[in-house]
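The record is given unchanged here:
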Amino acid sequence: MAKIDEINRRRSTYGIQDLGGEPGRQIDNTVGERRRVVLHAPDPDLVCMDEEKNRILENLLDGSRKETTIAKRVFNEARAKFGHPVWIDVSQQYSAVDLLGDILSEVTKLNVKKLEQMTRAEYEAMLYQTMGAKKYLIVMDDVWDTDVWRMLNPHLPDAQNGSRVLITSLSVEVARSADTCTPPYELRFLTEE
């Protein structure tokens, strides 16, 4: 009980809110908005990571590699080399239909009204057809659940054209479940400096 009380006290100290236990709960809007802002943050905000960025870019652009697991600043530098560059925020609470719709809206530029009229099966078919036409880079940011990749993977064709999917996650299990043949890329800790 003392440990639970301590955790609860720390939660209050650090401003961590209870997200609830229901399956349909929504992530705090403030957190979601902060994540959207980070996508457009200027590059100088990245501290002491040039070496990691270069190693990640090297892995990403290496045509001999099948797939690889990576991060954000790389997306901004690599996006011009892909016909369909897409960044989606996944987070703890996600909807499969919303993820499919988010990707489709980026690559097809269909308006929201048209997308809302489509069924999940139509999303899946259109995504597969559209993604096969060009080399794509999809970054799935903040993935917490191994099912996210299993749900999206069948609808992303491997056209052997250098397309890539990058998954950012705090969970090594999530990274390993996406590709058992490629070891996850784990960032080193920052130095005191």
In short: The radius of gyration is 18 Å.
